[in-house]
Amino acid sequence: MLPSVPSAARHAIARYRTHQDLRWRRVPPIRVHPARGSSTVYYLVPDVTTPHGGVRVAYRHVDCLNALGQPAAVLHDTPGFRATWFPNSTRVVDTRSLRLGSDDLLVVPEVYGPWMHTIDPAARVLVFNQGAYLTFDALDPARTGDGSPYRDIARLEGIMTVSRDSADLLSLSFPDVPIDIARPVVDGSIFHPGPEPGREAFAYVLTRRQHERNQVLHVLRSRGLAWQPVPLTGMSETEVAQTLRRSAVFLSLSDRDGFGLPPAEAMASGCYVVGYPGGGGEEFFDPDHCAPVRSTAELVRALERAMTTSPAELAAAGARASAAILGRYHEDGLRQDLQRIFAPLVPGR
């Protein structure tokens, strides 16, 4: 047996991890300059090199705003940095060369929460919260004031989020702050059903409910259900879509998710989705074409029912799910949402 880690060492490791987590959440220094008479929207995005759904969403918003005639750009800290794990020609600028005007609008993601109090008080800020359940994760309630982190922002214009569930939760936390929803987009040119029903395989992501996933895999094996588990890891967006089309079932392990893009993309790809809505997914987990669950036992039983259902029946449910997702979470709808949200926020539009 391996020796146990002493309590003092465990606390030291936890403090180090907390320190490291807080370091990357620091808001880069951004000085505000006098108004220029025309307003640009800047989406502050962390300099991350691995796939993160929130980064992809910010880039898409900037593209949509520019297409609507509203000048916008992604704002990275490092000069020359750009997300490269998906194709894009999005306008990108850096904090070192930026001259943010007092009439510009800075869109700040929720991950910077612990350091939002350091934002220049002259900056107009719209918080973009894609993870409502994570809003307070890095904050100590004994050391923060009421309404932190957002009430620490001097010129807070509002909160933008991604689902009805998130908007409901955020309205309880910040009842006097305007909240609006910009729908996520599932790209139908990438995520769509294939010509044939998926094989006897179930796909899943690795970043949620790891212990429960391990238990479920063992229980399925003990019950003689030999479908192939397919972890979606180390893949490009296109490779993920191809893998989903080849899988009859998607195992949703969503947990405290603002929206839950993986199960939505799986539905769009024609998978029969079994598992947890995870909060944000409540608005699209329709029992007509998927199997929402609330416990591990329910999850195992629902997977077993799916694995003993005919391929044609699963494919038909997957086709209904795809039509529902692609008919709602599309770019035209997002542009309408952004037009509604930004029109009153950007002077001169």
Q: What is the total domain count?
A: 2
CATH topology of the largest domain: Rossmann fold
CATH architectural type of the largest domain: 3-Layer(aba) Sandwich
Helix percent reads 25-40%
What does this structure look like?
- The structure is a single chain.
- The chain has 349 residues and is an alpha/beta fold.
- The protein has two domains: 24-185 and 331-342, Rossmann fold (3-Layer(aba) Sandwich), CATH 3.40.50; 199-326, Glycogen Phosphorylase B (Rossmann fold, 3-Layer(aba) Sandwich).
- The protein has nine helices and 14 strands.
- It has a seven-stranded parallel β-sheet with strand order 4-3-2-6-7-8-9, sandwiched between helices. A five-stranded parallel β-sheet has the order 11-10-12-13-14, with helices on both faces.
- Strand 12 (247-253), helix 6 (261-268) and strand 13 form a beta-alpha-beta unit.
- Helix 4 crosses helix 7 (296-307) and helix 6 (261-268) crosses helix 8.
- The longest helix is centred in the first third of the chain and has 18 residues, at 7-24.
Brief descriptors of the model:
alpha/beta; Rossmann fold; 2 domains; five-stranded parallel beta sheet; 349 residues; 14 strands; single chain
Layout of strands and helices, then pairs:
Elements (H helix, E strand, L loop, with lengths): L6 H18 L7 E2 L7 E4 L8 H15 L4 E5 L15 E3 L5 E2 L3 E5 L14 E6 L25 E7 L2 H10 L5 E3 L17 E6 L5 H13 L5 E4 L5 H9 L1 E7 L7 H8 L3 E5 L13 E3 L3 H12 L3 H16 L4 H12 L7
Helix pairs in contact: 4-7, 6-8
